[in-house]
TrEMBL record:
<feature type="transmembrane region" description="Helical">
    <location>
        <begin position="25"/>
        <end position="44"/>
    </location>
</feature>
<dbReference type="InterPro" id="IPR009495">
    <property type="entry name" value="NrsF"/>
</dbReference>
<keyword id="KW-0812">Transmembrane</keyword>
<feature type="transmembrane region" description="Helical">
    <location>
        <begin position="56"/>
        <end position="77"/>
    </location>
</feature>
<dbReference type="Pfam" id="PF06532">
    <property type="entry name" value="NrsF"/>
</dbReference>
<keyword id="KW-0472">Membrane</keyword>
<protein>
    <submittedName>
        <fullName>DUF1109 family protein</fullName>
    </submittedName>
</protein>
<feature type="transmembrane region" description="Helical">
    <location>
        <begin position="183"/>
        <end position="205"/>
    </location>
</feature>
<keyword id="KW-1133">Transmembrane helix</keyword>
<feature type="transmembrane region" description="Helical">
    <location>
        <begin position="89"/>
        <end position="109"/>
    </location>
</feature>
<feature type="transmembrane region" description="Helical">
    <location>
        <begin position="121"/>
        <end position="145"/>
    </location>
</feature>
<feature type="transmembrane region" description="Helical">
    <location>
        <begin position="157"/>
        <end position="177"/>
    </location>
</feature>
Length: 211
C-alpha cells in the first residue's frame, strides 16, 4: 500500500479519531494530576495568592500559559490526524502571544526605564527555567503516549506541539508559586522554560511518534 493511500484511509476512518481524543483527554488528565502532585511535593502556592489575583500581572501569567496550552493541545491533535487542517490551531497560538505582547507594552509604558532590567531579571530566573520543564515532564510523557494512537505525518512537529502544551501547563503550575510577576520576566524566562520543553517534545516525538 502506498503511503498516500494509507494516509487517506486513516483520515477517512472516524473511530481512530475518537479513540485519539479519548486517549488525549485521559493522558492530559493523568499528566496534570501527576504534575500537580509533583508541585505539592517540591513547591507551594505563594503566600496570599488568592488575594493577589486582582493584580493584572498575575492574571496575565495564567491567561498566557493556559491559552497557550489549550491551543497547543488542539494543534497536537490535528497534527496526529493525517490530512487534518491545522490552520486554526496554529492561528490560535497568536492569542497568548498577543496577550503577552500587550502586557509587555503596558509594563514598558507604565514602569520607569531604570526598573526594566530588574523586572527582566527577576528574583528566581534559574528556578523558573529549571522548574517549568520539571513540572511539565509528566504532562509531556502522558501526551506523547496518547498521541501514539494517531498517525502524524510530521512526528517531530506533533511532538513539539505536545511539548508546547506541556510547557504551558508546567508554566501555569509554576506561576502558582512564582513571585516574579513582570511580563518582561514571563516573556524571557517562562519563554525559555517552555521552549526547552517544546524542543524536548520535538526530539522525543521524532522517535516515539514515527510510523
Amino acid at each position: 500500500m502506498k503511503t498516500e493511500d494509507l494516509i487517506r484511509g486513516l483520515a477517512a476512518d472516524g473511530h481512530p479519531g475518537r479513540s485519539l481524543e479519548r486517549g488525549m483527554a485521559l493522558g492530559l488528565l493523568a499528566g496534570v494530576v501527576a504534575a500537580a502532585a509533583l508541585f505539592v511535593l517540591i513547591l507551594a502556592p505563594r503566600s496570599g495568592l488568592l488575594s493577589l489575583l486582582e493584580e493584572w500581572r498575575i492574571l496575565l501569567k495564567f491567561a498566557v500559559t493556559l491559552t497557550l496550552a489549550a491551543a497547543a493541545v488542539i494543534l497536537a491533535l490535528r497534527l496526529s490526524r493525517p490530512g487534518a487542517d491545522a490552520t486554526r490551531p496554529v492561528l490560535a497560538l497568536l492569542l497568548p502571544a498577543a496577550v503577552l505582547a500587550a502586557g509587555v507594552a503596558v509594563e514598558l509604558l507604565s514602569t520607569p526605564r531604570a526598573e526594566w532590567r530588574a523586572d527582566f531579571i527577576g528574583h528566581y530566573a534559574v528556578y523558573c527555567v529549571s522548574l517549568i520543564p520539571l513540572l511539565a515532564a509528566p504532562v509531556l510523557g502522558a501526551l506523547l503516549l496518547a498521541l501514539q494512537r494517531g498517525a502524524p505525518t510530521r512526528p517531530a512537529v506533533a511532538g513539539a506541539a505536545a511539548g508546547l502544551a506541556a510547557g504551558g501547563l508546567g508554566a501555569a503550575l509554576y506561576a502558582l508559586h512564582c513571585i516574579d510577576d513582570s511580563p518582561l520576566f514571563v516573556l524571557a524566562w517562562y519563554g525559555i522554560g517552555i521552549g526547552i520543553v517544546t524542543g524536548v517534545g520535538a526530539a522525543l516525538g521524532r522517535r516515539v511518534l514515527a510510523w
